[in-house]
Write a structure and sequence with these properties.
Protein name: Peptidoglycan DD-metalloendopeptidase family protein
Number of strands: 23
GO biological process, one term: proteolysis
Subcellular location: Cell envelope
Main location: other
Bound molecules: zinc ion
Distance between the termini: 61 Å
Oligomer: single chain
Strand content: 35-45%
Cofactor: Zn(2+)
Length: about 400
């Protein structure tokens, strides 16, 4: 029998064009890190001439701030024998600059690094704080503030959480492929989240309605965006609650406390809890430097004892929800730095923390079926690994199939 040979029935393979040989592959590389020592001295020791070093620094200066150089930032220098041919600056996994033709006319190029996104489930359990519960995650403070923003209208993350509260979220995580595997770069959007608290349970689903608006809704399709923020400070401590019969610490007599006092450092930014119009901005007796805002539904909010008022905030001007209107101080009758935050509805003082404001626009009727299907997909993703309530675990999910990783 003849030996099997390459016959006519084997499809002819089109010869691939020979890939351009990478001139950098043939170089010998020296590597180092920024920050520990002047880059000039490091490159000098690596064998570069003063002229070459200045050319490199001049080329990079428009794209890289040498004053912010950090030991995480790396440099690589490629030699052909004694001659330095190429230089690379790795400022982050997605920010890499190459300089070629160092021995001729140097050219700077930014390397395109492709990121990919994977949706992952992150779970946690509150011991002391949300930040702490996310300590096992990269960039945990950023992730905590993303989650806090999703629930900003319902949960005051500095006051409401209790030990043992649980949460889970499906979040976009971005990576690049590195030499030693995937490198996490940043978070994208929180796609869905649930919070199981001692006080209540909340859920949130990011959804784009057919009119192109992306917003967070609960499983029933009600918007999570409310007309009034729960607190005018991002980080706060309630030091005195609303009390119709309080003994005033400065006046030394009984006087109702028509608001909430938040202890906060001097010049902590104070935000408008809802969009509205400025009706007072300036000195106001014992209230010190004060701002009052008038909102829809006959709601008035007050911000007293400010150190200063933010620029552009004056009587008659409009402010948006979340806009900084002033900074915490102790002007007027105040014993220490704090914000007095008051609220009137229909001209009568109310406890701002006792108010529940109606949610804004729900998912439109025409989007309802699609929305419910979306919620069901998100819930499957969140529940997917069947290990609800397990803290410090991360289930990695790549729709439609699932993989699971447990991070430490
Ligand atoms: Zn007060």
């Amino acid at each position: 029998m003849p030996e099997a040979s390459v016959g006519a029935d084997v499809p002819e393979v089109q010869a691939e064009p020979e890939p351009e040989p990478d001139p950098r592959a043939a170089l010998a590389w020296k590597k180092g890190r920024f920050g520990r020592e002047l880059i000039y001295n490091q490159l000098m020791r690596a064998g570069l001439s003063s002229t070459d070093i200045h050319r490199i620094i001049d080329l990079l200066t428009p794209v890289y701030d040498f004053r912010k150089s950090h030991p995480d930032h790396q440099w690589e220098l490629g030699f052909d024998g004694e001659t330095a041919k190429a230089f690379t600056l790795i400022a982050s996994p997605t920010e890499i600059f190459d300089i070629d033709q160092l021995d001729g006319e140097p050219v700077l190029a930014r390397r395109e690094i492709e990121q990919f996104v994977r949706n992952e489930v992150v779970r946690g359990q509150i011991d002391v704080s949300l930040f702490g519960a996310l300590a096992h995650q990269p960039q945990n403070a950023l992730l905590a503030s993303k989650l806090a923003r999703v629930f900003a209208w319902d949960i005051d993350f500095y006051k409401d959480p209790r030990k043992g509260d649980r949460f889970e979220m499906l979040v976009e995580m971005k990576y690049v492929k590195g030499d030693d595997g995937e490198i996490f770069t940043e978070y994208g959007e929180v796609l869905a989240a649930r919070y199981f608290g001692a006080f209540d349970t909340y859920d949130a689903f990011a959804y784009e309605t057919s009119d192109g608006e992306i917003s967070y809704y609960n499983a029933q399709g009600k918007s999570l965006v409310r007309e009034v923020l729960r607190s005018p400070l991002k980080f706060q401590n309630v030091t005195s609650r609303f009390n119709r019969n309080r003994f005033h610490p400065v006046l030394k007599r009984r006087r109702p406390h028509n608001g909430i006092d938040y202890g906060a450092p001097r010049n902590t930014p104070v935000m408008a809890v809802a969009s509205g119009r400025v009706v007072r901005a300036g000195r106001y007796g014992g209230a010190g430097i004060a701002v009052e805002l008038k909102h829809r539904n006959k709601i008035l909010t007050q911000y007293f004892h400010l150190n200063k008022i933010a620029s552009g905030v004056r009587v008659g001007s409009r402010v948006k929800q979340g806009q900084v209107i002033g900074y915490v101080g102790k002007t007027g009758l105040a014993t220490g730095y704090h914000l007095h935050y008051g609220m009137k509805i229909n001209g009568r003082y109310v406890d701002p923390l006792g108010q529940k404001f109606p949610p804004s626009t729900p998912v439109p009727k025409s989007d309802r079926d699609a929305f419910l299907a979306h919620v069901s997909t998100m819930l499957t993703a969140l529940d997917g690994d069947g290990r609800r309530g397990v803290s410090r675990s991360i289930a990695t999910l790549t729709a439609p199939e699932r993989q699971e990783h447990v991070a430490d």
